[in-house]
């Protein structure tokens, strides 16, 4: 009887940029891509319209978490870009509570798009969170 895998119900997302750990995030949105299609109508053929794939677009990825000591790693990474923004390789690993890696995505040419730190106010006592948004130029093969 084949062993059935449990779905990742409760996960966190470990993020590494060029082998530097940025820590665990509890929310990851935007992992995906879209093939842009071009439509062409052929003269004399009214039965259908040609759907031609042209390019792949990758959405930005938004990572969110409560602030931790790992927040310093994010700001250190951002501060290192004062002289220019070098493109990096990133790895995002979805992990269960016990540390088992459920899935891993490797991204090429990663650059930060936006970082939003916590809003600290005694009038609204909420968990202080940070959000990091990154752009990339595609997924790497698993062997790279």
UniProtKB/TrEMBL annotation:
What domain of life does the UniProt record list for this protein's source?
Bacteria
Task: Spell out the InterPro entries in the cross-references.
Answer: CHP02241 (IPR011747), Phage_T4_Gp19 (IPR010667)
Q: What is this protein called?
A: Phage tail protein
Q: Which organism is it from?
A: Streptomyces bambusae
